[in-house]
């Protein structure tokens, strides 16, 4: 019996060793993530709450109250960080005027997005990565521009994360360009992000990915009373909002309903976020946004860009879109006291890790194909080198069609690979790997003959 037990024990140890995964972290990215500071995040939130209301329709002339003072303050923070960037970080207030629409605008409104651009070091690398939160806040009545609307979590948390990311990342160099933005007008029907997305499309910005952060600092839910700061949601569209009619046939034919660019970005957020941030699980939500609701990434996907929404796992509706009051012992309002700054620290770290890994990586491989010339039980993929960036090698990714995440990675230094797995049963993609092991976004192969 002892011999049998010993044999079983050795077998179980062997299986355990085989199942272990080595986590390799880039030293610079690890340093950035560890630099996220709870006290800094608290100071940003406190300052935003002190503006009283940040409603898009509120005062834009006061230096201490309203949305005008708030957006000028964000620009001033970006300008402060620019001093440590060797001239690579520039900041400005990007403004436009909206006419009354009879819905959520009852007056001509000068809207301003607070923008900071961290210029990439490679002039040939035209890739752009955008990270956003929305600066505006509201109470129960979205048209109420005078009552205090602290907006600590919605979306002071997202803006605080963006500001902290700019503070930390402006000290480092990246091949690609990163744009940090605190948009306005989200509560007035995504006006600020819509303005920015339309501008990006018109001016042909090469936006490779956009991360929208909206409510990333509260750990608990109303009604169900769940408390949990170990999970984070990432929402991504399945079928592409842009040009779906042109792509629908190939999506159906090749079984790619779950492999749009935004869905690939969501998987990337999960892999890289969990690689660098401990005690956090990134949950993939197969919707563009919460049920029948929207966020600032939506205008980007509608304009053909790759974008996702990053949001806390549990929403508390007692502290969202509420007048400040107490009813039956329940305190309503989006106040700082209801936030979890350790959770906000972790969620900010996810953004930094993803942005840094993308901006440090070479561009994705080009002309990725899977051969269908002959029937076979193996799969042959081939591709061309990326347009920019120094490449160490490539990963061919593989997963079963029912798997939400990539399950295997095959490394090669060539621009082709044949693997003994049938394309009938598996899905594939290819990503570039840089000299510091930073990976590009995966590219799903087209048909090659």
UniProtKB/TrEMBL annotation:
CDD domains: FN3. It is found in: Secreted. One of its GO terms (cellular component) is extracellular region. Residues 1-19 form the signal peptide. The keyword Glycoprotein does not apply. InterPro entries: FN3_dom, FN3_sf, M28_fam, Peptidase_M28. One of its GO terms (molecular function) is metalloexopeptidase activity. Its main location: secreted. It holds the Pfam family Peptidase_M28. GO terms for biological process: proteolysis. Residues 113-323 form the Peptidase M28 domain. Keywords: Hydrolase, Metalloprotease, Protease, Secreted, Signal. This is M20/M25/M40 family metallo-hydrolase. It comes from Pedobacter frigidisoli.
